[in-house]
Design a protein that fits this description.
single chain
Length: about 70
């Protein structure tokens, strides 16, 4: 389980372009982690997480990560 957590965090940091000085390496880690671990594209996750979650973290009306369905 710890290995999966580390892989997910590496993908998360890559999605924020914060894992490496190399844009290619950031995209590679994000793409691999999200495709293999979450079954979604890194582009979708980056739009949802970076574009929609971070401007309004934990706001139930605006943050899709905490929206109750």
């Amino acid at each position: 389980m710890q290995t999966l957590t580390v892989a997910a965090m590496l993908g998360h940091e890559g999605g924020h372009m914060a894992l490496s000085d190399s844009a290619f390496e950031n995209r590679l880690f994000a793409s691999l982690a999200f495709a293999w671990l979450a079954g979604m594209s890194a582009g979708y996750w980056m739009h949802k997480h970076n574009g929609l979650h971070h401007p309004h973290p934990n706001d139930p009306d605006l943050d899709p990560d905490v929206k109750i369905l």
